[in-house]
Sequence to fold (146 residues):
Amino acid sequence: MSTTPDLELMTFKGVKELLSYVNNQINDLEKRIKDIEDMMGDLKVKADKYMALLQMIEEIVGKGQQLPLSTAVELTGLKIIFDPRPIDEYETLNESRKAMADRLTALTRVKDILEVIVNKLGDKAEVPILVELKTGIPIKIIFRSW
Fold:
């Protein structure tokens, strides 16, 4: 039997309540993405300076030489970085921003579909629903009773 760890179930009173939930998720993601982008903007200058310094050192020492990197420890899948380089922080923020932007795009598509359902069915769509979510994105809606 196969299990998918990213799946969860939620119940809603109807499509309008699910739409409200999705709108809240979208608003939260937009705010969090903006916060990350602000942090990236502040860090970009440091990362650029660090990369310029690193390139200069590589030219002097030679590209094949191992340069000291930040200290990282991995414990059961959790990576802990001590005294990170600016580029490490920037790349981590950028990876998270990209993943959140992808999730935002998917949620926006779901929102568009839900709005069509609400507009076409109106109150007829307001029956209890069971929603399967994968990484927080609705992937299946089960209308429980009509």
